[in-house]
Amino acid sequence: TWTADAGWAGRPRVLPFGDLPFSPAMAGLHYGQVVFEGLKAYRRRDGALGTFRPDAHARRFQQSARRLAMPELPEELFLEAVDAFVARDGGLLPADDPRLSLYLRPILFASEASLALRPAREYTFLLMGFVTEGFFSDRPDPVSVLVSREFSRAAPGGTGQAKCAGNYAGAFLAQRQAADAGCRQVVWLDPVERRWIEEMGGMNLFFVRGSGPSAEVLTPPLTGTLLPGITRDSLLTLAAELGYTTREERISVDQWREESESGLITEAFACGTAALVTPIGEVRDGDGGWLVGDGKAGPLAMELRTALTDLHQGRVDDAHSWLRWATTE
Length: 329
Ligand code: PMP
Prior knowledge:
Blueprint: E1 2-3, E2 7-8, H1 27-31, E3 34-36, E4 39-43, E5 49-52, H2 54-67, H3 75-89, E6 100-110, E7 122-133, E8 143-147, H4 165-169, H5 172-180, E9 185-189, E10 197-200, E11 203-209, E12 216-219, H6 230-241, E13 245-248, H7 253-261, E14 265-272, E15 276-285, E16 288-291, H8 299-312, E17 323-326
Parallel strand pairs: 8-9, 8-15, 12-13
Antiparallel strand pairs: 1-2, 1-7, 3-6, 4-5, 4-6, 5-17, 6-7, 9-10, 10-11, 11-12, 11-14, 14-15, 15-16
Bound molecules: 4'-deoxy-4'-aminopyridoxal-5'-phosphate (PMP).
4'-deoxy-4'-aminopyridoxal-5'-phosphate binds near residues 163, 202, 204 and 227.
């Protein structure tokens, strides 16, 4: 917990999973002062558990907290909590199923019992973990997506860049529309001109222009209304190391359609901690739609997916020290 008078108190402790007692007047519940992270630990063949880029997640957690006028959890406390959890409960992750990972969900919320409309004076930090089979991760089949023309995920000057609870609540209605249209995900457009592609519900987006070794790997720039994904950042690095030209470039929804139809854009894929790399096969926009490439998983998406998962599972050299290793108790 953090209190305005005393700052952070105590070291992280591992408790059994269970309910927590909070006041019905808890500020976070009413006013949405809640930020969180999602990161994963993977098991290497020799049994060691590696958490992927926890330092980057700790820093994004701080940036999210700052935007919501919340105290920033010191990076070393974040890492200590991750280490304590992985050491104690990482053993729950079986060694023989590479599809499974340990998903860690740190959350910081305003726990003060107060209805005052101001930043709370008391916060609680929790980290919980789940053994999961990644969202899509057993099935890198292409997904179909719906461009949301009606709703925005973020506003200029808003909280789109932060990983805070409210950003997701505003997206559920669009997500339901996507599901009704037979699509798995919503593609969000920029909230100003409403034509530039930004991101998806829990994933950043990439486009491939051209093919073969001269293919360009493109992703929308961080405009302030989309989340700076850690997988996005990792893939920009990995794609450059594989010899591809990478670029942050704005792509409009019309351009996506035209360049897909003319064959210039050959692939599109989504990426995130949960989604890894997931190819996009088909786009729906109003009454129309188009195929990306031939509608199947493209070679570059699969190459990057393999590069990322090889790294996660310790099959290749971790040149950037992205994994934090722990041995379980
Ligand atoms: N955008 C949004 C809105 C997200 O919630 C996520 C998942 N954290 C991402 C993108 C992908 O980010 P990351 O690669 O850090 O998981």
